[in-house]
């Protein structure tokens, strides 16, 4: 039976509606589709970026995958940190168990081994005294405030069972048990002792009282490091211990010269009144390795000027004289004096006398280089002649200096050369450090740093 026209029409309308619906559905799906379906390889490349820009369209599986990856990285970092901590512990244990290499020391039994305090033991003379007494097998305690001394001078003994380093200012009392005291603490070069004259006087008066008081309490023998400066600008030449000196009590050097004179007076007052066993060494100009680079004294000035090819400057006309002893000779003299029964002051110095001008030429010759020697203005209160009379040291201690000037200077020049190289290297390293991108970054971060409001 033929279809009626109405039914035909309905079928047509329904079909057209269906087609439109199918098209709309297709269009809708194409909108929702992830582009990764379109081009899988490209989508793989951009996956993380896509996930970041359109996080909403990541499905749960992908999110879970990324989370797992992050977790894995965090775990790996934690494991690496734990392993580094274990390795650090091992390095520390290894360092502690490996015995440090110390210079060879003699074994002394308890009867012969002394506990020796050296004030100013981290300084130039003190550190050489430490070396000799340690090698002899004694127990050495160094007390220093590091004003002019430095740990580096005694670092080779740090950790040794016979050695102790105490950071202390001797202007304050000290309570320890010792058998002998070498009292060396005091700045020794003019720029250092003039830097704070009141402190220099305190160190040489209050500091000496504290050391003499300690010696009295523990019945220790005490040696005071006095100086040829107690003779001032001498009118007697060479200077014997019986000469009372020619000191300007209000001049720029008085804080040191008079400080040392009071130090001697105190020593004999304690000896007389309290029966303290005192030894007084009047030390003349001493030189050698570990001298302070900028102590402003003739030896270091001339050597540094010659090593840097600068003009060697002689104060005044250069006719003033000095005698120089090498530090190992002084150390032998100090130890002999402490061991002796002699309680009057003893000069320790090298009587071979040179004019300052001669000395400048000797150093120029030993160093080489192109330095000129030139005269400059004289210094106030600069003593004109200085030469020890060492008759007393020879007779009571059987001591006299042994190291010839050129040998001592050769060792000292080598030391200064090494120190200059070290400081040049240090400057290069710091320049490298300050030019590095890391420092630039740190500096920038500091500039950009905004502190939290409190
Ligand atoms: N070197 C010489 O030519 C010479 C000459 C004559 C006398 N002396 C005497 O010998 C001693 C040692 O001289 P140096 O050349 O080794 O001098 P230095 O400056 O190298 O050593 C002195 C040491 O004493 C320490 N010191 C200073 N004040 C102190 C304080 N208040 N408390 C604790 N420590 C303090 C310094 O830090 C330094 O380590 C000094 O007493 C000095 O007066 C030295």
Automatic annotation (TrEMBL):
<dbReference type="GO" id="GO:0042732">
    <property type="term" value="P:D-xylose metabolic process"/>
</dbReference>
<keyword id="KW-0333">Golgi apparatus</keyword>
<keyword id="KW-0520">NAD</keyword>
<dbReference type="GO" id="GO:0032580">
    <property type="term" value="C:Golgi cisterna membrane"/>
</dbReference>
<keyword id="KW-0210">Decarboxylase</keyword>
<comment type="pathway">
    <text>Nucleotide-sugar biosynthesis; UDP-alpha-D-xylose biosynthesis; UDP-alpha-D-xylose from UDP-alpha-D-glucuronate: step 1/1.</text>
</comment>
<keyword id="KW-0472">Membrane</keyword>
<keyword id="KW-0325">Glycoprotein</keyword>
<keyword id="KW-0812">Transmembrane</keyword>
<keyword id="KW-0456">Lyase</keyword>
<dbReference type="InterPro" id="IPR036291">
    <property type="entry name" value="NAD(P)-bd_dom_sf"/>
</dbReference>
<dbReference type="GO" id="GO:0033320">
    <property type="term" value="P:UDP-D-xylose biosynthetic process"/>
</dbReference>
<dbReference type="Pfam" id="PF16363">
    <property type="entry name" value="GDP_Man_Dehyd"/>
</dbReference>
<keyword id="KW-0175">Coiled coil</keyword>
<dbReference type="InterPro" id="IPR044516">
    <property type="entry name" value="UXS-like"/>
</dbReference>
<dbReference type="GO" id="GO:0070403">
    <property type="term" value="F:NAD+ binding"/>
</dbReference>
<keyword id="KW-1133">Transmembrane helix</keyword>
<comment type="similarity">
    <text>Belongs to the NAD(P)-dependent epimerase/dehydratase family. UDP-glucuronic acid decarboxylase subfamily.</text>
</comment>
<protein>
    <recommendedName>
        <fullName>UDP-glucuronic acid decarboxylase 1</fullName>
        <ecNumber>4.1.1.35</ecNumber>
    </recommendedName>
</protein>
<dbReference type="InterPro" id="IPR016040">
    <property type="entry name" value="NAD(P)-bd_dom"/>
</dbReference>
<feature type="domain" description="NAD(P)-binding">
    <location>
        <begin position="117"/>
        <end position="410"/>
    </location>
</feature>
<feature type="coiled-coil region">
    <location>
        <begin position="63"/>
        <end position="97"/>
    </location>
</feature>
<keyword id="KW-0735">Signal-anchor</keyword>
<dbReference type="GO" id="GO:0048040">
    <property type="term" value="F:UDP-glucuronate decarboxylase activity"/>
</dbReference>
């Amino acid at each position: 039976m033929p279809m009626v026209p109405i039914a035909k029409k309905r079928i047509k309308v329904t079909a057209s509606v269906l087609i439109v619906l199918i098209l709309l559905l297709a269009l809708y799906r194409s909108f929702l589709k992830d582009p990764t379906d379109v081009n899988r390889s490209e989508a793989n490349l951009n996956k993380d970026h896509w996930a970041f820009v359109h996080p909403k369209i990541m499905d749960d599986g992908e999110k879970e995958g990324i989370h797992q990856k992050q977790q894995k990285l965090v775990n790996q970092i934690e494991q690496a940190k734990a392993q580094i901590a274990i390795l650090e512990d091992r390095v520390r244990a290894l360092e502690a168990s490996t015995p440090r290499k110390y210079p060879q020391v003699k074994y002394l039994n308890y009867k012969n081994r002394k506990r020796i305090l050296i004030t100013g033991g981290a300084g130039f003379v003190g550190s050489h005294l430490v070396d000799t007494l340690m090698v002899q097998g004694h127990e050495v305690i160094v007390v220093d405030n590091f004003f002019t001394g430095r740990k580096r001078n005694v670092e080779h003994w740090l950790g040794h069972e016979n050695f102790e380093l105490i950071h202390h200012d001797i202007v304050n009392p000290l309570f320890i048990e010792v058998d002998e005291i070498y009292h060396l603490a005091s700045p020794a070069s003019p720029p250092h002792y003039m830097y704070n004259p009141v402190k220099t006087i305190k160190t040489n008066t209050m500091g000496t009282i504290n050391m003499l008081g300690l010696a009295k309490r523990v019945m220790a023998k005490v040696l005071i490091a006095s100086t040829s400066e107690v003779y001032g600008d001498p009118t007697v030449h060479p200077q014997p211990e019986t000469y009372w000196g020619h000191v300007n009590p209000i001049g720029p050097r008085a804080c040191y010269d008079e400080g040392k004179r009071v130090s001697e007076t105190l020593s004999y007052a304690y000896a007389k009144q309290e029966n303290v066993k005192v030894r007084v060494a009047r030390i003349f100009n001493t030189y050698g390795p570990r001298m302070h680079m900028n102590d402003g004294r003739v030896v270091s000035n001339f050597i540094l000027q010659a090593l840097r090819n600068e003009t060697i400057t002689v104060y005044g006309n250069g006719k003033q004289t000095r005698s120089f002893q090498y530090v190992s000779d002084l150390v032998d003299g100090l130890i002999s004096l402490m061991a002796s029964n002699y309680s009057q002051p003893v000069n320790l110095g090298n009587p071979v006398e040179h004019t300052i001008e001669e000395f400048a030429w000797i150093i120029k010759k030993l160093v080489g280089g192109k330095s000129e020697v030139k005269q400059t203005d004289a210094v106030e209160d600069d003593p004109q002649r200085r030469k020890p009379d060492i008759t007393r040291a020879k007779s009571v201690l059987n001591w006299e200096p042994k190291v010839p000037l050129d040998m001592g200077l050769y060792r000292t020049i080598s030391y200064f050369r090494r120190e200059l190289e070290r400081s040049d290297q240090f400057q290069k390293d710091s320049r490298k450090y300050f030019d590095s991108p890391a420092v630039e970054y740190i500096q920038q971060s500091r500039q950009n740093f905004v502190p939290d409001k409190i």
